[in-house]
Write a structure and sequence with these properties.
320 residues; MetI-like fold; 75% helix; mainly alpha; 13 helices; 2 domains
Length: 320
């Protein structure tokens, strides 16, 4: 009896051996991606996570760059910004207006150009290369470029007006309200429209041809095909492009800082130029950190809204 029991156990072990080995191998394979990603995760936590958490902590203190000591004051900085700092609301509202105008104008221009490029029979590669050229420039260089364009004395814009009209136009684009705002808006539109074109053209070229052929057989016009077929079908691409560009514009700093610096007299102050001036110019680092996190929260909510719409358009009207 004992001999039969021993043989039975050996038989079970022989049958379970390969299966247990496969389970062990499967567990090791499952852990391998995590082990490969672990160094990158640790670097991101050190480079991004720790500074963000420390900045969040400082936003609840009275820390200043002129003082090495600080104490915890809770929501004091946030209350001061939201209730006792009218310039914060001015910069915040101007940033929202800036984002709204820039994203919508870029979308309209990008959609028109993408439609034309998608219909081009020859030279599409060359056209795409030309369209992507603004994206190859650093925002700082774009800022210097447009600062020269809109210079009151030697700027390209005023010289073009003189060439066209024959009259000297010393228009102070970067100083006068609202021309300074218009100037930085034009610079950002020039910088961001190519990105919108590339994303929208990719969406247009990925559309199936059968619905358009059926609509053409039914006698639909070009506008009807665009409104009823093209636009609804590329909405996932639209929301993706708008979400990415909105995040870029929400933290727009380089172009504005070079062109106007938020001035003169805060006439072109956006939220991030105000953060920089408050934190480093006036040494109120805690207030600047609080303002940054308010902006991050608003940007997160706006991005969440866009991605909900993206999911709705992707799955035909619902996120579930």
């Amino acid at each position: 009896m004992a001999t039969q029991t021993l043989r039975h156990k050996r038989s079970l072990a022989a049958h379970q051996g390969p299966s247990a080995g496969r389970r062990g191998l499967g567990l090791a394979e499952a852990r391998l991606p995590l082990l490969l990603l672990l160094p990158g995760i640790l670097v991101m936590l050190f480079v991004i996570g720790f500074p963000m958490l420390y900045s969040l902590y400082l936003s609840f203190t009275d820390f200043s760059l002129t003082s090495l000591t600080h104490k915890f004051i809770g929501l004091g900085n946030y209350i001061e910004l939201l209730t006792r700092d009218p310039l914060f609301w001015t910069a915040f509202g101007r940033t929202v207006l800036f984002m709204t105008l820039a994203v919508n104008i870029e979308f309209v221009l990008g959609l028109v150009i993408a439609q034309l490029m998608a219909r081009a029979i020859r030279g599409q590669g060359f056209l795409r290369t030309i369209m992507m050229m603004p994206m190859m420039f650093a925002p700082i260089l774009v800022g210097f470029q447009f600062k020269w364009f809109f210079n009151a004395q030697i700027g390209l814009v005023n010289n073009l007006l003189y060439t066209i009209t024959g009259q000297v136009h010393m228009i102070p684009w970067l100083i006068q309200r609202p021309l300074g705002f218009i100037a930085i808006l034009i610079a950002e539109i020039w910088l961001g429209t190519p990105f919108m074109v590339i994303i929208l053209e990719a969406g247009i070229l990925s559309l199936p041809s059968e619905p358009f052929e059926a609509a053409e057989v039914d006698g639909a016009s070009g506008w009807q095909k665009f409104r009823m077929l093209t636009l609804p079908m590329i909405m996932p691409f639209v929301y993706t492009a708008m979400a990415i560009r909105s995040l870029d514009l929400a933290r727009a700093y380089d172009v504005v800082s070079i062109m106007t610096g938020g001035g003169p007299g805060n006439r072109t102050e956006l939220i991030w130029t105000y953060v920089n001036r408050l934190a480093f110019g006036e040494h109120e680092f805690a207030l600047g950190s609080a303002m940054s996190f308010i902006t991050v929260i608003v940007s997160f909510l706006f991005t969440y809204y866009l991605f909900r719409n993206l999911l709705k358009s992707r799955w035909g009207g619902g996120t579930e």
